[in-house]
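Service request form, structural biology core

Requester: graduate student, group of Dr. S.
Request type: structure prediction, single chain
Budget code: on file
Notes: please return the result as structure tokens.

Sequence provided:
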Amino acid sequence: MRRGDFFWGQVQFPEPPIALSHEYYGKLNLIPALLLTTLLLCCQAAVAAANASATAPALDQATVGLQVYKKWIGASGDEADVEIHLSCPPRTAFEPRFINRDHPDGWQIEQVPADGIFCSVHEIERETFIADATDCHGLLVIPGQDVECTMVNTKVVKRIDMLNRYGLVMMIAVMLGAGLAAVRKFA
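Core staff response, request fulfilled:
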């Protein structure tokens, strides 16, 4: 830090104009020096902001991409594609998409306002999995930023029917006999 530099909070200000010499820093004339320096910096920041806004591309009503990925947890094996839907209230419904582990898909959302919108992706569930779409609910879609989310599904393994109705009756009879024998022995 050079002699003459001083701090106000976290901002370092440059040296004040020549008329305000260094001998007044610790005295009462510090306040006018701070005000003058702050005024100069604010004017520079306002001019820079005006120039930046004049040359920046307009992000109002932009098109934003939303990409959805699929992840499977559980037993190995391929699963059929899953149907997903996008809703961004109060807009109309979007066309459904079909995704899978190796086949992500998404939408191009048009006319997104500058302050953004909240969108959610929903999945059509089947009996073969339990869906977890928490990563894809309440997505803030803002112009200039593409959005990604991942839907995670846990595969459900169904019970294999090994016994027909006669085998089931035989199994119940054997278990009932074993239970009765145990009750007699310990009673």
